[in-house]
# Entry
Amino acid sequence: MLQIKQYVKVTSLDEAYELNQKKNNVIIGGMHWLKMSSKSVGTAIDLSGLGLDEIVETDDAFEIGCMVSLRQLEKHEGLNYYTSGAVRDAVKDIVGIQFRNTATIGGSIFGRYGFSDVLTVFMAMDTYVVCHKAGEISLREYAGKKADRDIIVKIVVRKRPVQMAYVAQRHARTDFPTLTCAVSYMDGTWNAVVGARPLKAEIVSSDKNMISGEDPVTEAEDFGAYVAGKLTFGSNMRGSAEYRKQIAAVLVRRAMLAAGKDA
# Structure
C-alpha cells in the first residue's frame, strides 16, 4: 500500500527541484504506476499549479509541457497532422480514455518504460527533453541515461520534414504491447524505433544508399529484416524472443509502407 506523509503543491520549479533531491520524495503526475507500489513517500510533489499542461505550437516546434495528458496528445490536431496520425495511433490503445485523461507525457518519458508507446513514437522524431537543471538533451540520449533527481519541464519536437507511421502488436486492445514500432523518414534516412522487446525502445537507421525507393515493397521487407537483425529481443509472458524478432520485421515493413503512402 502506498503511504504519503506529506503533500506539497509547489509554486515554482526551483521549489520542486529542491524537494525532489530527497530520495524518499517523489514527483506525482497521473500516479497510475505509483499508486500500485508499496513504497513510503516522504513528500509528494505536485506540479499541477505551474502551467505545464499545455501544448504550444510555433513555426519551428511543438513544446509539450510535462503535465500534458496522453489524451491531449491523442486529440491535438497540429501534432497529429505533423505526424500523419502517428502520435494518435501510439496512444489510442493505452488502457482507456479515463487513464489517458490523467497519465502524463512527463511520467511516460521519465519512466523510460520498456512497454512505452509514447517513448517509441517520440524517439522517431527530432525530439528533445528539457530538464530543469540539465537543460535540453535529445530524447534518444535521454532514453539511454539512468534516472536521476532532475525534473522534466517539457518535451520539444522540432519541426523537420518527416514521413512517419506507428504500429504495435497487442494480444488485445488496451493490453500492454508485445512490441511497439515507429518508422520515420527524415533527411534521406529511414529510422525504425522498436520497443517492448521487452526492453525499452531503441532506434535503428538505414545505411546510406540502402533504400532507393525504386521498389518500396521489397525495400520495406529488406529494411524490416535488417532492423530485426540489429536488435536484441527477450522473452516474457507476452511472447518469446523468437516471436518478437519475427514480428519486428513485419511491423517495420508495415510502418515503412504506411509512412511512404502517407507522404
Summary: The mean pLDDT is 93. DSSP finds ten helices and twelve strands in the chain. Residues 166 and 182 are 4 Å apart (CA to CA).
